[in-house]
Amino acid sequence: MLAKLVPRFQFDVSFADLCKACTFLFNSKPFDSQSIVGLWKTKRAAFCSLSVRSAWDLALTQWNFDSESEIIVSPITVKGMIEIIYDHGLVPVPVDLQLNFLVPSLEELERALTPKTKAILISYLYGSKPRIDAILDFAKKHNLLLIEDAAQAFDGLDYAGNPEADLSMFSFGPIKTCTALGGAVSFCKSNLFARAVEEREKSWVQLDNLWFLKRVFKYGLLKFLSCKRVYGFFMSMLTLFTRNPDQVLKSLVRGFGSGSVLQGIRKRAPLVLMNFLKYRLQNYSQERLSRRRHLGRTLVQNLPSVLSIPGSKVEDHSFWIFPVIVKDADRWIRILRDHGFDANGSGTNVGMVDGSRFAMPVAKLLSSSLLYLPLSPDLSDKDFKALLTFLKRT
Ligand SMILES: Cc1ncc(COP(=O)(O)O)c(C=O)c1O
Known about the structure:
This protein is α/β, with parallel strands linked by helices. It has 2 domains: about 25-205, 3-Layer(aba) Sandwich (Aspartate Aminotransferase, domain 2), CATH 3.40.640; about 285-394, Aspartate Aminotransferase, domain 1. The chain has 16 helices and 14 strands. The chain has a 7-stranded mixed β-sheet, with helices on both faces.
C-alpha cells in the first residue's frame, strides 16, 4: 500500500517557483505584454492572454468569418477549441492525421476543402513540431489562414512557431511545459492584428489575485501528492475511496473547473499571473528540455516493435508527453503499476472531435488505444533504465 510509484505526470514547476509566484502578489507595477513577447528570439508580433482557448476565441472574433464558414481542424484536440468554433457560428471539419507525422496529408486536406473553408487549425500533438511547408503552400494556394495550435509544443524561446503561419499559440497552463499555472502567448503576422486583439480583450473582466492564489495552493498540493514517495499512498487512497480514481485525477488537474468552457476563458489574466509567466520564461532551464528530448529519443530508439509511437517520424519533437499505441492498455497499466510506474490510457481531456464527414482510422486509434508512459525530465536515471528494461522485456 505504501509502495513508491512513479507518477504518470510531473508538474513542470518547482516548490521554489510557487513560493516566488506568491511574491508577485505584492507587485502592482503596470504590466506590458511586450516584456514577455520580447523574450522570444523572433520579430513576429504577439499578444498574451489567459489561455490558448482565450486567444483562439479572440482571434475568431477578430477575423469575423461569415456564419457557417468551415475550419479544417486536427481530429484530436481539447474539446474547448472545438466548442469555441461552434460558438462563433462556424463549422469545424476534422480530417485524419498521418500516424507517423501527426499532421493531415494533402489528399485529406483536398478532400475536406469546400468553397466555405476559411482556415486550417493544426494541433501539434504530444510536443511534436511537424514540418508544415506543404500545408502552408496548400493554405496559400487556397487563400486560407493557417493556425498553429502549439499549446503542447513550447520548446524554449528560440521557437515562436512558423513565421509563415497566421497565428501560433503557446499555452502555459498547469500541465504544460514551463507552466505559470495559466497564460498563453500567441504570435501572429501583423502587429495591427495583435493590438486589435488586445483591445478586444480589454472588455473582458480581469481575474483577481485570490483566483491566482487558489491556483498556487491547488497545484502546490497536487505537486506534493505527485512526489514519488507520496503518490503511491495517494493513489491507493483514491482507489479505496472513489469508484473511478482516473476520472478524479483528471478532474483535479483540469485548468478551469467543470463549468462552461467559454465562461472560464473569456477573462483577462491577473497581473500576478503575467508577472509569474515572465519570471518562468526568464528562468526556465534549457537543460530540462534537453533531458526530456534525450529521454524521448532514447525510448523511440529502444522500444520493442509491439509498441508503435505516434509521430515517430517527426524530426523535431520535444516529447511533452509520450504516448504509445497498444492493444490492451488496461493490461499494460496494471503490469506497469505492479512495477512501480503509473501510466494512463486514452481518455484525457484531449480527445477525438465528433461529427467528421470522413472516416478517421488514425484519430480513432489515437483516441482509443494510447498508453501514456510516465516520461518526464524529473524521472531519475535509475527509474528510466528500469522503465526501459521493463518495456523491452514485456
Ligand atoms: C492541443 C491543445 N490545444 C489547446 C489547448 C488549450 O490550452 P489552454 O489550456 O491554454 O487553453 C490544449 C490544452 O491542453 C491542448 O492540448
